[in-house]
TrEMBL record, chain A:
One of its GO terms (molecular function) is CoA-transferase activity. It comes from Roseibium aquae. The keyword Transferase applies. Keywords: Transferase. InterPro entries: CoA_trans_fam_I, NagB/RpiA_transferase-like. It comes from the Bacteria. This is 3-oxoadipate--succinyl-CoA transferase subunit B. PANTHER family: ACETATE COA-TRANSFERASE YDIF (PTHR43293), CHOLESTEROL RING-CLEAVING HYDROLASE IPDB SUBUNIT (PTHR43293:SF3). The keyword Transferase applies. The lineage of its organism: Bacteria, Pseudomonadati, Pseudomonadota, Alphaproteobacteria, Hyphomicrobiales.
Automatic annotation (TrEMBL), chain B:
GO terms for molecular function: CoA-transferase activity. This is 3-oxoadipate--succinyl-CoA transferase subunit A. It holds the Pfam family CoA_trans. PANTHER family: ACETATE COA-TRANSFERASE YDIF, CHOLESTEROL RING-CLEAVING HYDROLASE IPDB SUBUNIT. It comes from Roseibium aquae. Keywords: Transferase. InterPro entries: CoA_trans_fam_I, NagB/RpiA_transferase-like.
Length: 256, 288
């Protein structure tokens, strides 16, 4: 692997999964970078929505928070937060939601609430924010997370947002009609749910990544698809757009 | 009916020990100056509500003002966790606090229900997750028309809402724009309110007929505090001080560093410091 970092590969793989007609509920960090790379490359008409109420944003630098002024300045319109959650998210207007977390299990359930017991936590994490309803109201969910044994766990300490539950038809049994997590994009691979069990399965390894890297960074016995592809390396254009975005962002945030 | 006060008097006359207070703001327009005044006046046993508790809640908790926190996302946005909140929850310092935890959708709906005079909010949420098992205020109702099971949470009806807005006119009407979060709902859901503003103008002048304006008869106290949202931002006035958010992570990491920072930057100063703090942020970040 040379010429790009695993983080860049993760972000670019996520960007490629977005389509020009998507309406996307964006989170901070990797999702924000991925959505804006998509907008600046193959998906110029994508609609980016941040939960602060900004609809159709086109930031020239990545926001540090989901409510930076840059988002509002470049948005088509900005609505109140109750309206955002009621009309736009719950109303079923969002095609793709991005989520991540401190912990994920093999079915794409996520924990951003606590490590350890809820009442006596080892680490008190920020909590769910928009995630519990993003997870059930968006048409589908893309998850971006770096692989580690600490984060990819056999059993979550707390279920903050629903993925495929206990697998199979459990999500539907819980009264949720949307697709849930359809892609897990990591720094090492692309994972997709098995059509039957809904367990996340490696379908593509990033350039230079071997199967043992996956096994070493996951707290369960990972499954691989019958044919595992290799993720195309980032193109020169993709890398340039991503790096320019990060450079502009760094200059803007340190110069404030 | 809106009354113009100093920030000191607005807080002294409206926020009392044991009150339930919502200091709202969604990244934009966070009422930092007002929260600092509450800390200076030594309020205790507050129940504080906020969708996105950030630095001011870390400060209120670390200074021992808070008995209970109602929230949906507690973090330093884009930076990390809230270390004073963590210390209170994990180690009980300076004293243990009670948590009532929700999702954003739940609290946004609950503020709206409060403003609408309803006893509870109903929405499609919390399916397949663990929060309902640790928060008895998350229940469900069955739609009488379709049979769909929906989540229900109590309406939020604070004693006091505290917000920072862009301007007030001489009558006490309050204008805000940009990311308006849940501030309108929070004020209308509360019995009393304190609004700090960047400036007081004779007339709002040309504006959209749909501008967000809270009429003076919905407002309690107004105090002019230029820069009063810092290090948050005020659309058209000054930009967000991202460096201050990043620096907070280090300040809040150690109890002694935190206490001495609060002594120097909150206890020993007054609201006038906020105008000085935002001076260098007014050139480009906020100007449009």
């Amino acid at each position: 692997m040379s010429g790009f970092t695993p983080s860049e590969m993760m972000t670019i793989a996520a960007a490629r999964a977005l389509k020009n007609d998507d309406v996307c509920f964006v989170g901070i960090d990797a999702p924000s970078a991925a959505c804006n790379v998509a907008r600046l490359t193959h998906a110029p008409d994508i609609t980016l929505i941040y939960e602060s109420g900004t609809i159709g944003t086109a930031p020239s630098v990545l926001p540090l928070s989901i409510g930076d002024g840059e988002l509002c300045d470049t948005a088509l319109t900005t609505v109140s937060v109750p309206e955002m959650f009621r009309y736009w998210l719950q109303g079923g207007r969002i095609t793709v939601g991005f989520l991540g977390g401190a912990q994920i299990d093999r079915f794409g359930n996520l924990n951003t609430t606590v490590v350890g017991d809820y009442t006596r936590p080892k680490v008190r994490l920020p909590g769910g924010g928009g995630a519990p309803e993003i997870a059930i109201s968006c048409g589908q969910i893309f998850i971006t997370m770096k692989q580690s044994r600490r984060g990819f766990v056999e059993k979550l300490d707390f279920i903050t947002s629903l993925g495929h539950g206990t697998g199979g038809g459990d999500r539907q049994a819980k009264g949720v009609a949307t697709k849930g997590p359809t892609l897990l994009l990591t720094d090492l691979a692309i994972w997709e749910p098995d059509p039957g069990t809904r367990e996340f399965t490696v379908t593509s390894l990033h350039p230079g990544v071997r199967r043992e890297h996956i096994v070493e960074t996951v707290g369960w016995e990972p499954r691989f698809a019958e044919t595992v592809g290799e993720t195309p390396a980032p193109t020169a254009e993709e890398l340039e757009v991503l790096r320019d975005l990060h450079a502009r962002t760094k200059a803007a945030h340190s110069g404030a | 009916m809106a009354q113009f006060h100093t920030l000191h008097d607005a807080v002294a006359q409206n926020i009392f020990d044991g009150d339930t207070v919502a200091f709202e703001g969604f990244t934009h327009l966070i009422p930092h100056a007002a929260a600092h005044e509450v800390i200076r006046q030594g309020r205790r046993d507050l129940t504080v509500i906020r969708m996105t508790p950030d630095l001011i809640y870390d400060q209120l908790i670390g200074m021992g003002c808070v008995r209970k926190l109602v929230f949906s996302f507690a973090g330093n946005p884009g930076v990390g966790l809230l270390r004073r909140l963590r210390d209170a929850v994990e180690e009980g310092w300076p004293h243990p606090i009670e948590l009532e935890e929700h999702s954003h959708a739940a609290l946004a709906n609950a503020y709206e229900a409060g403003a609408a005079g309803l006893p509870c909010a109903i929405f499609r949420g919390y399916r397949g997750v663990d929060l309902p098992s640790v928060n008895p205020n998350i229940k469900s109702v069955t739609c009488p028309f379709t049979g769909e099971e929906l989540a229900a949470v109590p309406a939020i009806r604070p004693n006091v809402a505290v917000i920072h807005a862009l301007r007030a006119d001489r009558k006490g009407n309050v204008f805000l724009e940009g990311i308006t979060g849940v501030q309108k709902e929070a004020v209308l859901a509360s019995k009393r309110s304190i609004v700090t503003v960047e400036e007081i103008v004779d007339d709002f002048g040309a504006r959209s007929p749909n501008a967000t304006i809270l009429p003076h008869w919905t407002i309690g106290a107004i105090a002019q505090v230029p820069g009063g949202a810092h290090p948050s931002y005020a659309q058209g006035y000054y930009g967000r001080d991202n460096g201050a958010y990043i620096a907070w992570d280090r300040i809040a990491a150690e109890r002694e560093v935190f206490l001495s920072w609060m002594e120097e930057n909150v206890m020993k100063v007054g609201p006038e410091i906020f105008e000085i703090r935002t001076a260098r942020l007014r050139q480009d970040g906020g100007a449009k």
